[in-house]
Amino acid sequence: MRFALIGAGAIGTVHARLIEALGNEAELVAVVDQNLDRAGKIVEQYGGQAYASPAEAYAAEELDAASICLPSALHADIAIEALRAGKNVIVEKPVDITLVAADRLIEAQRPTGLTVSVISQRRFQPPVAQIRAAIDSGALGRVTSGIAESAFFRPQSYYDGDDWRGTLAVDGGGALMNQGIHALDLLVWMLGRPVQVSAQTGMLAHSGIEVEDLAGASILFESGAIGLLLASTAAYPGRPVRLTIHGDQGTAVLDDDQLAYFASAEGGEPEAPVLDGPDGWGPVELAHLAQYRDFIAAVGSGRAPAVSLEAGRRSLATVLAVYESARLGRPVELKEN
Q1: Cα 300–302–305 angle (5° rounding)?
Q2: Alpha carbon distance 32, 330 (integer Å)
Q3: Fewer CB atoms < 10 Å away: N or C end of the chain?
Q4: Model confidence over 233-283: pLDDT tens digits?
């Protein structure tokens, strides 16, 4: 698959490395950035040609897909441009920062027959897959509750390093929209459709930003299950994502990228899938690579990707409900589009 990388910043460099690691499955053909010097640095290391705009790359190169690694508020518009150029799309999380933008992208994708997937690589981690398999098999019984913790730390320099970070207009949010959304996505994937959110947010450890560095929420799901969420960039020195899923017949805990605890009245735990990748890569990196492989397979077979646009929209809708509940000081109802 011939890729154009749209955005040559830090996350764009990560995606270039992923595409290189795919070997014969993928090729980085174009790197697009308004800053051609920055695009050129990725080209020097990973190959391809540098372009100042997606339109230039689409006109000049034979491309199968666009990998969109831009600031969050640009995701939908640039993905729509790629679709109109006949390219499949893999877009970094969040799908965008508003439901209007996400819905515009969904409507643009539907008639094309092209594939769009939203990055949520933690779904592909083997212990996460084990927990989901336990739910699907009934090994946990009826799922009753879940707890997702994303207790990260970002120094002040993280927000000061780019003028768009920590802004409502471009970043769209803080610790939840940009870091905790991964843990939130896992909670929603495990527990189903959220219907009500009660939340609080704060900005306690940083200055000069418009967004939260701490969010806490209680989420009621359609099934009656209750989820608890903590998202922070103010928890020094930072901890890996922790996810606990409780059912009336079992409990599973993800901690430090491992299945740290599993108990089921049925006995035994699901088999863990094995992820292939370069030596020395960590669990999250290998999961990221696995999502790229799923995307390529989905395009090749015509099936839906494991993380669809609709899944990305559901996670975004939940994030926005957290913000609305915190702003209004009361629970907020979620409705499906």
Answers
A1: 90
A2: 43
A3: C
A4: 999 999 999 999 999 999 999 999 999 999 999 988 899 999 999 999 999
